[in-house]
Write a structure and sequence with these properties.
alpha/beta, four-stranded mixed β-sheet, 21 strands, globular
Length: about 500
């Protein structure tokens, strides 16, 4: 009997709890809110907002303000200096460094011991539980897990307190038993120099029995390419015959799917999406044939949602989970045991089902193009690129897009800067296919493109190899969980990239 068969029974009871999401979702979420409020009453923030008077969801919604990082920055900074009972009971020692805001280069998201246990690690265990249920013949634990992480550094001068990528915090605090099946060793996994780390990981794992890999698709791809280079093999299936699954998250997988198919070289390879952000672990792909993810309801996360057509307005509608409807685009609002209260995370989602609650990530509240009323979101972009790649045989590695604003003749367009791993047979055909698919997906974009009256056909500029990595490196953001901003109303990012192209 394999090791995986022996360990698989540990996860079966958890699978039963997850099945309860289908019929008990509201009850589960109300219990989560009650638990969080009871803990929050012990904090300075809870006392300021009278959390001891919260009994129902209506009390919670009427009393507690909706927040962004700007509103919580000051209390978070006090937490970083070691102050206790600010946003969550006790002293929080870990802070996940995330991409910044308009006013700051970085955000520092608190990660409490409760949040680490009851959100992030719970999500990792559930990913395994659901994967094993869907793959009863798996040999996941009969080999090693390649987990790609970032790095961390000391937080101010507070003893035993660190700031860094969430992945680095997870690796730093992982159960020592997990290190028996995980590679690379911690000293390599936490190296700050991504290029040196990439080389070290490739060499350490080259002859290991890797059965599963976990990480951000773009950075993992870079490591896997180096493994192939060192091995002299054509596919990863030749290097690691036992490789069976990639647990991926952080960015959309669509642009990378074909590259992974070619790189792995096995039709048996599984791909499981996870939604594990710095702010929390929220979703898992529970069915291999369904790209939607299951919203994880019994973690220390209480969910609310703002319809995107009202986002940014005063008195915008905010609904709890049981108030959402499928097919509508929402901004996600979370309250967690890390001390984030009614916090706008910045991601947008659309539900595909409510029994159980399943969803797709559609983009970011700030990552869209709406320079001319076209309201182009990341979900449109990903689907459009997938169609253009399929039509022309291209493969996209990285991309960003921004508007080219109106000239003297009131002509304007979208400009896409794309790094291809396989260039299309015709760049013009690729641009036309992308443009046509965007019109099919987005009626506002279609209306603006009508007869070229407002928007002209989009422009595609080919990026030189490694342009996006070089740009991230110039900003000290190479590796870890850093991502290329995909869409933007500003030309700041794309102009910097074009200057380096």
């Amino acid at each position: 009997m394999s090791i995986t068969s022996l360990l698989g029974g540990v996860f079966k009871s958890r699978q039963t709890h997850i099945d309860a999401y289908t019929h008990n979702s509201e009850e589960i979420q109300r219990r989560v809110m009650t638990h969080l409020v009871q803990q929050g009453q012990r904090t300075q923030y809870g006392k300021t907002w009278g959390m001891n008077n919260v009994r129902t969801y209506e009390d919670f919604a009427n009393r507690m303000p909706v927040t962004t990082y700007e509103e919580l920055k000051e209390p978070i900074d006090r937490m970083r200096h070691g102050e206790a009972d600010v946003l969550w009971p006790g002293v929080v020692k870990w802070f996940a460094k995330s991409s910044g805001t308009t006013n700051d280069k970085s955000k520092f998201i608190p990660v409490s011991a409760d949040g680490l246990k009851n959100i992030h690690y719970k999500g990792g265990k559930d990913a395994v539980a659901l994967y094993l249920r869907n793959n009863p013949k798996s040999k996941l634990f009969d080999g090693r897990s390649l987990i790609l992480g970032g790095s961390h550094s000391p937080n101010y001068n507070v003893a035993n307190s660190i700031v860094g990528d969430l992945s680095a915090i997870l690796i730093e605090n992982i159960n020592p038993l997990a290190n028996l099946v995980r590679v690379p060793k911690k000293s390599i996994a936490l190296m700050p120099d991504f290029e040196a780390k990439r080389e070290a990981i490739a060499r350490q794992t080259l002859h290991a029995n890797i059965t599963n890999i976990s990480g951000v698709p773009s950075w993992m791809l870079s490591v896997l390419v180096r493994v192939l280079e060192l091995s002299g093999k054509n596919t990863l299936a030749e290097v690691w015959p036992g490789l069976e699954v990639f647990f991926h998250g952080g960015i959309a997988f669509g642009p990378y799917r074909e590259q992974y198919h070619h790189l792995v070289g096995s039709s048996q390879m599984q791909y499981m999406e996870t939604y594990n952000a710095s702010e929390g672990f929220f979703g898992l792909q529970d069915a291999p044939g369904d790209e939607s993810m299951l919203l994880m309801l019994d973690y220390d996360v209480f969910y609310e949602f703002i319809p995107m057509d009202e986002f940014g307005r005063d008195n915008a509608t905010i609904v709890p989970l049981w108030g959402v409807v499928p097919g509508q685009n929402y901004a996600m609002v979370i309250s967690t045991s890390c001390g984030l209260w009614r916090y706008i995370i910045g991601d947008t989602v659309m539900f595909t089902s409510t029994q159980p609650y399943k969803f797709k990530i559609t983009g970011r509240t700030k990552y869209f193009i709406n320079a001319f009323g076209e309201e182009l979101i990341m979900d449109n972009a990903e689907q459009g690129l997938a169609y253009a790649c399929k039509t022309t045989g291209a493969e996209v590695l990285e991309y960003t897009a921004a508007p080219v604003f109106m000239d003297a003749e009131a002509k304007c367009r979208h400009q896409w800067l794309i790094e291809f791993s396989r260039q299309p047979s015709s760049l013009d055909a690729f641009a036309k296919a992308l443009d046509q698919r965007l019109q099919q997906l987005n009626s506002d974009y279609e209306a603006k493109r009508h007869k070229d009256i407002t928007l002209q056909q989009l422009e595609v500029v080919v990026a030189r190899p490694n342009l996006f990595n070089d740009w991230l490196k110039s900003k000290g953001k190479l590796g870890g969980q850093h991502k290329v901003p995909r869409l933007g109303n500003s030309r700041k990012n794309i102009d910097e990239l074009l200057q380096m192209n």
